[in-house]
Amino acid sequence: MIYHHILGVEKTAGDREVRERYLALVREFPPDRHPEAFQRITRAYEALKDRRSRVKARLTGVNDFTFWIDALDALVDSIPTAPQAPGLDRIIEADNK
């Protein structure tokens, strides 16, 4: 599961280890200086913070899916867009001038 990698803990990590690692990462990546990293770290913590959350994340996979959607959105946003060709309305408008 990707959340273990984000927090840097083993899949067998317990509540206490997950919380300690989360707090260490929050100190390293505070929300005012690293908002995106903080958001990923917090999402990972919410999925792993207790046994119930870990089981839910494992069974539903919803959280992993959300992570990948966010990762793909970030990738798409990083690609520069090409200039757009003029639309038909703009061509007709130019032709009428």
From TrEMBL:
Residues 2-61 form the J domain. InterPro entries: DnaJ_domain, J_dom_sf. SUPFAM superfamilies: Chaperone J-domain. Gene3D superfamilies: DnaJ domain. It comes from the Bacteria. Pfam families: DnaJ (PF00226). This is HSP-40, DnaJ domain-containing protein. It comes from Desulfotignum phosphitoxidans DSM 13687.
